[in-house]
Model the fold of this input.
Amino acid sequence: VYGGELVRDDVNKVSFILSSYQDHLDSVEEFPDLKAGTWGGAGETALFGDLGVKDITKAHAMQVLLDHLGASKDDAIAFGDAKVDIPVFEFAGTSVCMGNGGPEAKAAADFVTDGVNEDGLWNAFVHLGLV
Done:
């Protein structure tokens, strides 16, 4: 937070703008105890970087929520558009990749819907019988 305390113990993820891919590589080297990732842009083009707690993934978060709800992963639907979403695609009972997603994500999904700007989420909900 601009003007705020920079050292805190309640942060689990920090995102930043990449001026080049080297920024990501530098973050991997400088923060070996954290998980470094990239995201943003069309398909798999990295525009942003992030640093987070290792072993915390979207699949892990989904499992925590399902445990809390007393639900099965067969009841879960994962939506995504990038390589980073593949583990949650593999975890969830059903996975949907947005049409504007990257090729690896599309290949890993059970179903590819239209792009975000072409009502892809709504069309997937209809396809899956959710609405």
